[in-house]
Amino acid sequence: MPGLAWLGQAGFWIQTERHRILIDPYLSDSLAAKYADRGPDHRRLMPVPIAVADLPRPDAILVTHAHTDHLDPDTLGPLAARFPGLVVVAPAACADLARARAPGARIVGALAGARVEPLPGLVIDVTPAAHERREQDGQGRDLFLGYALEAGGVRLWHSGDCVPFDGLPEAVGRADIALLPVNGRDARRAAMGVPGNFHPAEAVHLARALGAAVLVPHHWGLFAFNSADPAEVRLAAGTGPPTVVVPQPGETLCLVR
After folding, report:
1. What is the pLDDT of residues 81-128, one digit of tens each?
2. DSSP states of 149-192 as a string?
3. Which residue among 17, 72, 92, 104 is least crowded, i.e. fewest CB within 10 A of its CB?
4. With contact defined as beta carbons under 8 Å apart, do 200 and 235 qualify?
5. Is 236 helix (H, G, I), strand (E, B) or coil?
């Protein structure tokens, strides 16, 4: 797993020996515009680490769910326009929305518990997620997903937005590197209709259950109303394992020597 760069929120650029993969890229201010006159303030606390126009072509984009900071039309739309036939893996339950937000992209609908190979050699295990609770559409398809992929003998898992639930460790199996949201959840955000994620201690506990050597905490630092202090993750981990690697936007992390 040669390189990993955090793009803010739940977004990552993953560079393996064979593929360049984007997960949940939010590289715009579309939510600030959407909520300009209502709801919590969605102005960014951190700048966009790279402009959409400056991104090289990814081999595939993985989208964990339909919330705009994960399935962003102002990021995916321009990318799909620049790179015809761009592969976008998204929950089958929101495949139509993905097509609308990334016109011209090749949408691969994913189902929890399945294994997909959107490109030769890019094999992805699809795991369920529960953004406060596990939800499915009328066809029994999960609305929230996570993705695990392996490269160079290293298994990396992005949980998507998620909280602990029965059967999650078994669904994942194992992970050498765990990318987990750590902004937690509380009554204040629930009252605003904002679903939460792992508390720092929960993220550490899950990473240990999966045998992860490295935990990369994300989903913090972007919106003032929905953030966390990543130092709490290090505090919860103590001397580890896992080793907690707190990323900085745009910084490339070499997690495997």
Report:
1. 999 999 999 999 999 999 999 999 999 999 999 999 999 999 999 999
2. EEETTEEEEE--S----TTHHHHH---SEEEEE-----HHHHHT
3. 17
4. yes
5. helix
